[in-house]
Design goal:
Chain A has 234 residues and is α+β, with helices and mostly antiparallel strands. Chain A has helices at 7-11, 18-26, 31-38, 45-51, 57-69, 90-93, 96-109, 122-135, 184-192, 194-199, 210-219; strands at residues 43-44, 73-77, 84-88, 142-149, 155-160, 164-168, 178-182, 204-208. The first copy, chain A, binds a DNA duplex (20 and 20 nucleotides) through α1, α4 and α5.
Chain lengths: 234, 234
DNA sequence: CTGGATCCATGATGATACTG
DNA sequence: CAGTATCATCATGGATCCAG
Protein backbone atom coordinates (compact mmCIF):
# COMPACT_ATOMS: atom_id res chain seq x y z
CA UNK A 1 0.00 0.00 0.00
CA UNK A 2 1.30 3.37 -1.00
CA UNK A 3 1.30 5.84 1.83
CA UNK A 4 -0.34 9.15 1.29
CA UNK A 5 2.18 11.91 0.69
CA UNK A 6 1.31 15.28 2.08
CA UNK A 7 2.59 18.61 0.91
CA UNK A 8 5.55 18.40 3.25
CA UNK A 9 6.79 15.18 1.71
CA UNK A 10 6.34 16.58 -1.76
CA UNK A 11 8.52 19.54 -0.95
CA UNK A 12 11.27 17.49 0.64
CA UNK A 13 14.32 16.67 -1.42
CA UNK A 14 14.59 13.13 -0.13
CA UNK A 15 18.38 13.25 -0.04
CA UNK A 16 20.66 12.23 2.75
CA UNK A 17 22.34 15.63 2.76
CA UNK A 18 22.29 18.02 5.67
CA UNK A 19 22.18 21.06 3.41
CA UNK A 20 19.12 19.67 1.66
CA UNK A 21 17.52 18.94 5.02
CA UNK A 22 18.27 22.47 6.20
CA UNK A 23 16.68 23.85 3.05
CA UNK A 24 13.60 21.72 3.60
CA UNK A 25 13.11 23.73 6.80
CA UNK A 26 14.12 27.20 5.69
CA UNK A 27 14.25 27.05 1.89
CA UNK A 28 10.71 28.20 1.16
CA UNK A 29 10.15 31.69 -0.16
CA UNK A 30 9.97 34.31 2.64
CA UNK A 31 11.03 31.85 5.35
CA UNK A 32 14.54 33.19 5.92
CA UNK A 33 13.19 36.74 5.89
CA UNK A 34 10.87 35.82 8.74
CA UNK A 35 13.84 34.43 10.65
CA UNK A 36 15.84 37.55 9.84
CA UNK A 37 13.20 39.80 11.35
CA UNK A 38 12.75 37.65 14.43
CA UNK A 39 16.50 37.63 15.11
CA UNK A 40 16.20 41.16 16.49
CA UNK A 41 13.64 40.04 19.05
CA UNK A 42 10.00 38.92 19.35
CA UNK A 43 7.56 40.54 16.93
CA UNK A 44 3.83 40.71 16.33
CA UNK A 45 2.14 39.69 13.11
CA UNK A 46 1.84 43.27 11.95
CA UNK A 47 5.44 44.08 12.91
CA UNK A 48 6.47 41.34 10.52
CA UNK A 49 4.05 42.52 7.83
CA UNK A 50 5.64 45.99 8.03
CA UNK A 51 9.18 44.69 7.62
CA UNK A 52 8.28 42.27 4.84
CA UNK A 53 6.62 44.62 2.38
CA UNK A 54 4.84 42.64 -0.28
CA UNK A 55 4.12 39.47 1.66
CA UNK A 56 0.45 38.55 1.88
CA UNK A 57 -1.03 37.76 5.27
CA UNK A 58 -1.87 34.31 4.01
CA UNK A 59 1.73 33.53 3.18
CA UNK A 60 3.04 35.01 6.43
CA UNK A 61 0.60 32.90 8.38
CA UNK A 62 1.69 29.81 6.48
CA UNK A 63 5.38 30.50 7.11
CA UNK A 64 4.86 31.11 10.81
CA UNK A 65 2.88 27.87 11.12
CA UNK A 66 5.54 25.91 9.25
CA UNK A 67 8.32 27.39 11.38
CA UNK A 68 6.35 26.62 14.51
CA UNK A 69 5.77 23.03 13.41
CA UNK A 70 9.48 22.62 12.74
CA UNK A 71 10.41 24.02 16.14
CA UNK A 72 12.14 27.17 14.90
CA UNK A 73 9.52 29.63 16.14
CA UNK A 74 7.58 29.75 19.36
CA UNK A 75 4.30 31.60 19.77
CA UNK A 76 3.09 33.57 22.75
CA UNK A 77 -0.67 33.62 22.87
CA UNK A 78 -2.08 35.03 26.06
CA UNK A 79 -5.80 34.66 26.66
CA UNK A 80 -7.45 38.06 26.85
CA UNK A 81 -4.64 39.83 25.01
CA UNK A 82 -5.01 40.93 21.43
CA UNK A 83 -1.39 40.62 20.39
CA UNK A 84 0.28 37.39 19.37
CA UNK A 85 4.04 37.48 19.78
CA UNK A 86 6.36 35.32 17.70
CA UNK A 87 9.91 34.56 18.77
CA UNK A 88 12.73 32.28 17.69
CA UNK A 89 13.47 29.04 19.47
CA UNK A 90 17.14 28.24 20.19
CA UNK A 91 17.28 26.28 16.93
CA UNK A 92 15.93 29.30 15.11
CA UNK A 93 18.45 31.64 16.70
CA UNK A 94 21.14 29.20 15.70
CA UNK A 95 20.50 30.19 12.08
CA UNK A 96 22.16 33.54 12.72
CA UNK A 97 25.63 32.63 11.39
CA UNK A 98 24.15 31.27 8.16
CA UNK A 99 21.98 34.35 7.67
CA UNK A 100 24.92 36.65 8.30
CA UNK A 101 27.04 34.89 5.69
CA UNK A 102 24.23 35.07 3.15
CA UNK A 103 23.65 38.74 3.90
CA UNK A 104 27.34 39.53 3.55
CA UNK A 105 27.40 37.66 0.25
CA UNK A 106 24.54 39.82 -0.96
CA UNK A 107 26.41 42.89 0.22
CA UNK A 108 29.52 41.87 -1.71
CA UNK A 109 27.82 40.81 -4.92
CA UNK A 110 24.47 42.50 -5.41
CA UNK A 111 24.82 45.76 -3.48
CA UNK A 112 23.46 48.81 -5.22
CA UNK A 113 21.79 52.00 -3.98
CA UNK A 114 18.08 51.75 -3.24
CA UNK A 115 15.68 52.51 -6.04
CA UNK A 116 13.51 55.55 -5.28
CA UNK A 117 10.37 53.58 -4.44
CA UNK A 118 12.09 50.57 -2.90
CA UNK A 119 10.90 49.89 0.65
CA UNK A 120 13.90 50.21 2.95
CA UNK A 121 13.33 49.30 6.57
CA UNK A 122 15.96 50.81 8.88
CA UNK A 123 16.50 47.47 10.56
CA UNK A 124 17.73 45.87 7.35
CA UNK A 125 20.02 48.71 6.35
CA UNK A 126 21.49 48.98 9.84
CA UNK A 127 21.99 45.23 10.12
CA UNK A 128 24.04 45.26 6.93
CA UNK A 129 26.07 48.21 8.24
CA UNK A 130 26.70 46.48 11.56
CA UNK A 131 27.82 43.25 9.91
CA UNK A 132 30.13 45.07 7.54
CA UNK A 133 31.69 47.07 10.40
CA UNK A 134 32.17 43.81 12.27
CA UNK A 135 33.52 41.91 9.28
CA UNK A 136 35.97 44.67 8.41
CA UNK A 137 36.97 45.00 12.06
CA UNK A 138 36.44 48.75 12.00
CA UNK A 139 37.72 50.29 15.22
CA UNK A 140 36.03 53.57 16.07
CA UNK A 141 36.70 53.28 19.77
CA UNK A 142 33.77 53.10 22.14
CA UNK A 143 30.82 54.65 20.36
CA UNK A 144 27.05 54.73 20.66
CA UNK A 145 24.93 55.89 17.75
CA UNK A 146 21.15 56.04 17.79
CA UNK A 147 18.85 56.16 14.79
CA UNK A 148 15.39 57.72 14.83
CA UNK A 149 13.05 57.00 11.97
CA UNK A 150 9.43 58.05 12.00
CA UNK A 151 7.10 55.10 11.85
CA UNK A 152 9.68 52.55 12.96
CA UNK A 153 11.47 51.48 16.11
CA UNK A 154 14.51 53.41 17.25
CA UNK A 155 17.81 51.59 16.93
CA UNK A 156 21.13 51.84 18.70
CA UNK A 157 24.37 50.78 17.06
CA UNK A 158 27.29 50.40 19.44
CA UNK A 159 30.94 49.59 19.01
CA UNK A 160 33.54 48.95 21.69
CA UNK A 161 36.60 48.72 19.46
CA UNK A 162 36.16 44.99 18.98
CA UNK A 163 32.51 44.13 18.66
CA UNK A 164 29.65 45.92 16.92
CA UNK A 165 26.07 45.43 18.07
CA UNK A 166 22.68 46.55 16.82
CA UNK A 167 19.64 46.60 19.04
CA UNK A 168 16.15 47.97 19.05
CA UNK A 169 16.19 50.87 21.48
CA UNK A 170 12.64 51.48 22.66
CA UNK A 171 13.40 54.12 25.28
CA UNK A 172 16.67 55.73 24.27
CA UNK A 173 18.01 55.02 27.72
CA UNK A 174 21.54 56.33 27.50
CA UNK A 175 23.22 59.30 25.88
CA UNK A 176 24.40 58.57 22.37
CA UNK A 177 27.47 60.08 20.74
CA UNK A 178 25.56 60.69 17.53
CA UNK A 179 21.85 60.74 16.81
CA UNK A 180 20.74 60.18 13.23
CA UNK A 181 17.21 61.29 12.33
CA UNK A 182 15.79 60.62 8.90
CA UNK A 183 13.02 58.99 6.94
CA UNK A 184 13.33 55.40 5.88
CA UNK A 185 14.33 56.18 2.34
CA UNK A 186 16.65 59.06 3.27
CA UNK A 187 18.49 56.84 5.75
CA UNK A 188 18.99 54.13 3.15
CA UNK A 189 20.22 56.61 0.54
CA UNK A 190 22.54 58.35 2.99
CA UNK A 191 24.21 55.21 4.28
CA UNK A 192 24.67 53.58 0.89
CA UNK A 193 25.73 56.55 -1.21
CA UNK A 194 29.24 57.72 -0.29
CA UNK A 195 28.86 60.98 -2.22
CA UNK A 196 25.94 62.01 -0.01
CA UNK A 197 27.82 61.76 3.27
CA UNK A 198 29.87 64.91 2.89
CA UNK A 199 27.01 66.77 1.26
CA UNK A 200 24.99 66.62 4.49
CA UNK A 201 21.59 66.24 2.82
CA UNK A 202 18.70 68.09 4.34
CA UNK A 203 16.60 64.99 4.88
CA UNK A 204 19.18 63.48 7.26
CA UNK A 205 19.93 65.15 10.56
CA UNK A 206 23.11 64.31 12.46
CA UNK A 207 23.24 65.50 16.06
CA UNK A 208 26.28 65.24 18.34
CA UNK A 209 29.69 66.73 18.92
CA UNK A 210 31.54 67.51 15.69
CA UNK A 211 34.32 65.06 16.53
CA UNK A 212 31.80 62.29 17.18
CA UNK A 213 30.05 63.00 13.89
CA UNK A 214 33.40 62.89 12.08
CA UNK A 215 34.13 59.51 13.70
CA UNK A 216 30.75 58.27 12.52
CA UNK A 217 31.25 59.48 8.96
CA UNK A 218 34.70 57.94 8.88
CA UNK A 219 33.53 54.57 10.14
CA UNK A 220 30.72 54.16 7.65
CA UNK A 221 33.11 54.58 4.76
CA UNK A 222 33.35 50.79 4.69
CA UNK A 223 29.70 50.65 3.77
CA UNK A 224 28.66 49.49 1.38
CA UNK A 225 31.67 47.60 0.03
CA UNK A 226 32.79 48.69 -3.42
CA UNK A 227 30.73 46.82 -5.95
CA UNK A 228 33.40 44.81 -7.73
CA UNK A 229 31.14 42.41 -9.53
CA UNK A 230 29.78 43.13 -12.99
CA UNK A 231 26.17 44.23 -13.13
CA UNK A 232 23.88 41.89 -14.97
CA UNK A 233 21.41 43.89 -17.01
CA UNK A 234 20.39 41.72 -19.93
CA UNK B 1 0.30 52.84 -17.45
CA UNK B 2 1.29 49.71 -15.65
CA UNK B 3 4.66 48.37 -16.70
CA UNK B 4 4.90 44.76 -17.69
CA UNK B 5 6.60 42.65 -15.04
CA UNK B 6 8.50 39.60 -16.15
CA UNK B 7 8.98 36.43 -14.14
CA UNK B 8 12.15 37.74 -12.55
CA UNK B 9 10.49 40.83 -11.23
CA UNK B 10 7.62 38.78 -9.93
CA UNK B 11 9.95 36.63 -7.92
CA UNK B 12 11.95 39.51 -6.51
CA UNK B 13 11.18 40.71 -3.03
CA UNK B 14 11.55 44.36 -3.90
CA UNK B 15 13.18 45.18 -0.57
CA UNK B 16 16.31 47.15 0.05
CA UNK B 17 17.82 44.30 2.05
CA UNK B 18 20.95 42.44 1.09
CA UNK B 19 19.64 39.17 2.46
CA UNK B 20 16.54 39.49 0.30
CA UNK B 21 18.69 40.30 -2.70
CA UNK B 22 20.89 37.29 -2.02
CA UNK B 23 17.80 35.10 -1.83
CA UNK B 24 16.55 36.48 -5.12
CA UNK B 25 19.67 34.92 -6.66
CA UNK B 26 19.93 31.67 -4.73
CA UNK B 27 16.59 31.27 -2.96
CA UNK B 28 14.80 29.20 -5.59
CA UNK B 29 14.25 25.54 -4.96
CA UNK B 30 17.29 23.40 -5.95
CA UNK B 31 19.52 26.42 -6.60
CA UNK B 32 21.76 26.08 -3.55
CA UNK B 33 22.05 22.35 -4.18
CA UNK B 34 23.44 23.10 -7.63
CA UNK B 35 25.96 25.45 -6.08
CA UNK B 36 26.80 22.83 -3.46
CA UNK B 37 27.64 20.25 -6.11
CA UNK B 38 29.66 22.68 -8.19
CA UNK B 39 31.76 23.72 -5.19
CA UNK B 40 33.73 20.47 -5.52
CA UNK B 41 34.69 21.32 -9.08
CA UNK B 42 33.24 21.53 -12.60
CA UNK B 43 30.52 19.03 -13.45
CA UNK B 44 28.54 17.85 -16.43
CA UNK B 45 24.77 17.91 -16.64
CA UNK B 46 24.47 14.23 -15.83
CA UNK B 47 26.96 14.50 -12.98
CA UNK B 48 24.60 17.02 -11.43
CA UNK B 49 21.53 14.88 -12.18
CA UNK B 50 23.18 11.98 -10.35
CA UNK B 51 23.93 14.03 -7.24
CA UNK B 52 20.52 15.69 -7.19
CA UNK B 53 18.25 12.67 -7.21
CA UNK B 54 14.69 13.75 -7.88
CA UNK B 55 15.35 16.88 -9.89
CA UNK B 56 13.88 16.88 -13.38
CA UNK B 57 16.12 17.79 -16.32
CA UNK B 58 13.81 20.69 -17.06
CA UNK B 59 14.30 22.19 -13.61
CA UNK B 60 18.06 21.60 -13.64
CA UNK B 61 18.31 23.33 -17.00
CA UNK B 62 16.30 26.25 -15.67
CA UNK B 63 18.50 26.60 -12.59
CA UNK B 64 21.71 26.45 -14.58
CA UNK B 65 20.42 29.11 -16.98
CA UNK B 66 19.35 31.35 -14.11
CA UNK B 67 22.69 30.95 -12.36
CA UNK B 68 24.51 31.68 -15.59
CA UNK B 69 22.41 34.81 -16.19
CA UNK B 70 23.21 36.01 -12.67
CA UNK B 71 26.91 35.42 -13.12
CA UNK B 72 27.29 32.64 -10.57
CA UNK B 73 27.94 29.83 -13.03
CA UNK B 74 30.05 29.73 -16.16
CA UNK B 75 29.57 27.22 -18.96
CA UNK B 76 32.20 25.47 -21.04
CA UNK B 77 30.82 24.52 -24.41
CA UNK B 78 33.40 23.28 -26.88
CA UNK B 79 32.32 22.85 -30.50
CA UNK B 80 32.54 19.22 -31.54
CA UNK B 81 32.41 17.91 -27.98
CA UNK B 82 29.27 16.41 -26.51
CA UNK B 83 29.94 17.32 -22.91
CA UNK B 84 29.03 20.66 -21.41
CA UNK B 85 30.90 21.53 -18.25
CA UNK B 86 29.48 23.84 -15.62
CA UNK B 87 31.65 25.62 -13.08
CA UNK B 88 31.23 28.32 -10.47
CA UNK B 89 32.32 31.87 -11.10
CA UNK B 90 34.22 33.63 -8.29
CA UNK B 91 30.91 35.05 -7.04
CA UNK B 92 29.50 31.53 -6.96
CA UNK B 93 32.48 30.16 -5.08
CA UNK B 94 32.08 33.00 -2.62
CA UNK B 95 28.87 31.35 -1.44
CA UNK B 96 30.90 28.63 0.24
CA UNK B 97 30.89 30.14 3.76
CA UNK B 98 27.12 30.58 3.67
CA UNK B 99 26.56 27.04 2.43
CA UNK B 100 28.85 25.66 5.11
CA UNK B 101 26.97 27.45 7.86
CA UNK B 102 23.64 26.19 6.53
CA UNK B 103 24.97 22.66 6.25
CA UNK B 104 26.32 22.74 9.78
CA UNK B 105 22.97 24.04 11.00
CA UNK B 106 21.28 21.08 9.34
CA UNK B 107 23.82 18.78 10.95
CA UNK B 108 23.11 20.22 14.38
CA UNK B 109 19.33 20.34 14.15
CA UNK B 110 17.98 17.83 11.67
CA UNK B 111 20.60 15.09 11.63
CA UNK B 112 19.27 11.57 11.66
CA UNK B 113 20.46 8.28 10.14
CA UNK B 114 19.60 7.75 6.48
CA UNK B 115 16.35 5.99 5.70
CA UNK B 116 16.88 2.67 3.92
CA UNK B 117 15.89 3.93 0.48
CA UNK B 118 17.21 7.47 0.85
CA UNK B 119 19.69 8.39 -1.88
CA UNK B 120 23.02 9.16 -0.21
CA UNK B 121 25.78 10.46 -2.45
CA UNK B 122 29.25 9.99 -0.90
CA UNK B 123 30.13 13.59 -1.67
CA UNK B 124 27.40 14.92 0.58
CA UNK B 125 28.12 12.59 3.48
CA UNK B 126 31.85 13.23 3.28
CA UNK B 127 31.39 16.99 3.03
CA UNK B 128 29.40 16.96 6.25
CA UNK B 129 32.09 14.83 7.91
CA UNK B 130 34.85 17.16 6.74
CA UNK B 131 33.05 20.27 7.97
CA UNK B 132 32.33 18.71 11.33
CA UNK B 133 35.98 17.61 11.74
CA UNK B 134 37.02 21.14 10.85
CA UNK B 135 34.45 22.83 13.09
CA UNK B 136 35.32 20.64 16.05
CA UNK B 137 39.03 21.14 15.37
CA UNK B 138 39.70 17.40 15.51
CA UNK B 139 43.43 16.74 15.46
CA UNK B 140 44.31 13.31 14.09
CA UNK B 141 47.77 14.36 12.99
CA UNK B 142 48.66 14.16 9.33
CA UNK B 143 46.27 11.70 7.74
CA UNK B 144 45.05 10.75 4.28
CA UNK B 145 41.92 8.69 3.87
CA UNK B 146 40.48 7.63 0.53
CA UNK B 147 36.94 6.50 -0.16
CA UNK B 148 35.96 4.18 -2.97
CA UNK B 149 32.32 3.83 -3.91
CA UNK B 150 31.16 1.97 -6.96
CA UNK B 151 29.36 4.21 -9.41
CA UNK B 152 30.75 7.44 -8.00
CA UNK B 153 34.00 9.39 -7.95
CA UNK B 154 36.69 8.45 -5.47
CA UNK B 155 37.29 10.94 -2.70
CA UNK B 156 40.24 11.79 -0.52
CA UNK B 157 39.82 13.33 2.92
CA UNK B 158 43.01 14.77 4.38
CA UNK B 159 43.89 16.37 7.68
CA UNK B 160 47.15 18.00 8.69
CA UNK B 161 46.35 18.61 12.35
CA UNK B 162 44.84 22.03 11.62
CA UNK B 163 42.88 21.91 8.39
CA UNK B 164 40.63 19.23 6.91
CA UNK B 165 40.10 19.03 3.16
CA UNK B 166 37.91 16.93 0.89
CA UNK B 167 38.69 16.50 -2.78
CA UNK B 168 37.63 14.33 -5.66
CA UNK B 169 40.51 11.92 -6.27
CA UNK B 170 40.28 10.65 -9.84
CA UNK B 171 43.54 8.72 -9.94
CA UNK B 172 44.35 7.82 -6.35
CA UNK B 173 47.75 9.38 -6.78
CA UNK B 174 49.30 8.94 -3.37
CA UNK B 175 49.26 6.25 -0.74
CA UNK B 176 46.47 6.69 1.76
CA UNK B 177 46.61 5.75 5.42
CA UNK B 178 43.15 4.21 5.27
CA UNK B 179 41.05 3.15 2.31
CA UNK B 180 37.30 2.85 2.81
CA UNK B 181 35.36 0.81 0.27
CA UNK B 182 31.58 0.58 0.43
CA UNK B 183 28.35 1.15 -1.41
CA UNK B 184 26.67 4.51 -1.21
CA UNK B 185 24.13 3.44 1.36
CA UNK B 186 26.57 1.40 3.43
CA UNK B 187 28.95 4.35 3.63
CA UNK B 188 26.20 6.65 4.81
CA UNK B 189 25.00 4.17 7.42
CA UNK B 190 28.50 3.46 8.65
CA UNK B 191 29.56 7.08 9.08
CA UNK B 192 26.34 8.22 10.72
CA UNK B 193 25.63 5.29 13.04
CA UNK B 194 28.12 5.18 15.91
CA UNK B 195 27.08 1.67 16.92
CA UNK B 196 28.13 0.31 13.53
CA UNK B 197 31.70 1.50 13.71
CA UNK B 198 32.95 -1.08 16.17
CA UNK B 199 30.82 -3.81 14.64
CA UNK B 200 32.83 -3.64 11.40
CA UNK B 201 29.91 -4.36 9.09
CA UNK B 202 30.58 -6.61 6.12
CA UNK B 203 29.45 -4.05 3.57
CA UNK B 204 32.19 -1.62 4.58
CA UNK B 205 35.83 -2.52 4.04
CA UNK B 206 38.58 -0.65 5.89
CA UNK B 207 42.11 -1.20 4.60
CA UNK B 208 45.26 0.14 6.23
CA UNK B 209 47.52 -0.38 9.19
CA UNK B 210 45.59 -1.18 12.38
CA UNK B 211 46.86 1.97 14.09
CA UNK B 212 45.74 4.11 11.16
CA UNK B 213 42.30 2.50 11.20
CA UNK B 214 42.02 3.15 14.93
CA UNK B 215 42.91 6.80 14.35
CA UNK B 216 40.21 6.99 11.68
CA UNK B 217 37.55 5.41 13.88
CA UNK B 218 38.50 7.70 16.74
CA UNK B 219 38.32 10.85 14.64
CA UNK B 220 34.89 10.17 13.18
CA UNK B 221 33.39 9.89 16.64
CA UNK B 222 32.50 13.58 16.31
CA UNK B 223 30.17 12.68 13.46
CA UNK B 224 27.35 13.18 13.42
CA UNK B 225 26.89 15.49 16.39
CA UNK B 226 24.53 14.19 19.04
CA UNK B 227 21.02 15.08 18.04
CA UNK B 228 19.96 17.34 20.87
CA UNK B 229 16.88 18.81 19.29
CA UNK B 230 13.45 17.25 19.68
CA UNK B 231 12.17 15.30 16.72
CA UNK B 232 9.01 16.62 15.19
CA UNK B 233 6.79 13.72 14.15
CA UNK B 234 3.24 14.99 14.08
C1' DC C 1 -7.53 48.15 14.92
C1' DT C 2 -5.01 43.21 14.93
C1' DG C 3 -4.78 38.76 13.08
C1' DG C 4 -6.09 36.45 10.22
C1' DA C 5 -9.43 33.48 6.41
C1' DT C 6 -11.40 32.93 1.61
C1' DC C 7 -11.59 32.95 -3.34
C1' DC C 8 -9.41 33.12 -7.58
C1' DA C 9 -5.46 33.69 -10.99
C1' DT C 10 -0.97 32.48 -12.31
C1' DG C 11 3.38 30.79 -12.43
C1' DA C 12 6.76 27.50 -10.69
C1' DT C 13 7.64 22.86 -10.14
C1' DG C 14 7.01 17.69 -10.84
C1' DA C 15 6.03 13.35 -13.73
C1' DT C 16 6.74 11.23 -17.78
C1' DA C 17 8.13 10.59 -22.27
C1' DC C 18 10.90 11.69 -26.04
C1' DT C 19 14.99 13.70 -29.16
C1' DG C 20 19.37 15.86 -31.59
C1' DC D 1 25.14 13.30 -23.11
C1' DA D 2 22.30 17.08 -22.75
C1' DG D 3 18.68 18.45 -22.87
C1' DT D 4 12.87 19.38 -24.83
C1' DA D 5 7.92 18.65 -24.83
C1' DT D 6 3.68 18.01 -22.72
C1' DC D 7 0.61 17.78 -19.07
C1' DA D 8 -0.72 17.98 -14.17
C1' DT D 9 -0.32 19.89 -9.61
C1' DC D 10 0.80 22.90 -6.06
C1' DA D 11 2.56 27.15 -4.03
C1' DT D 12 2.24 31.90 -4.12
C1' DG D 13 0.21 36.54 -5.08
C1' DG D 14 -3.84 39.80 -5.32
C1' DA D 15 -7.92 41.17 -3.67
C1' DT D 16 -11.40 41.01 -0.47
C1' DC D 17 -13.76 39.96 3.72
C1' DC D 18 -14.37 38.96 8.74
C1' DA D 19 -14.19 37.88 13.88
C1' DG D 20 -12.61 39.42 18.50
Amino acid sequence: MIEAVNARDTRSYGHFCMLAKALERVGDRWTLLVVRDLLSGPKRFTDLMDRMAGITPKTLTQRLRDLEADGLVEVDRVAGRREVWYRLSPAGQDLQPALEELLLWGLRHVAEPPRPDEPAHPEHVLRALQLQLQREAVDAGSVRWTVHVRGADNYVLTGDGTRWELRIDPYGERTPDVTITATRSALARFLTTPALRDAQPQDVELAGKPAAIRTFLKAIEVFPPVAAGPAQNP
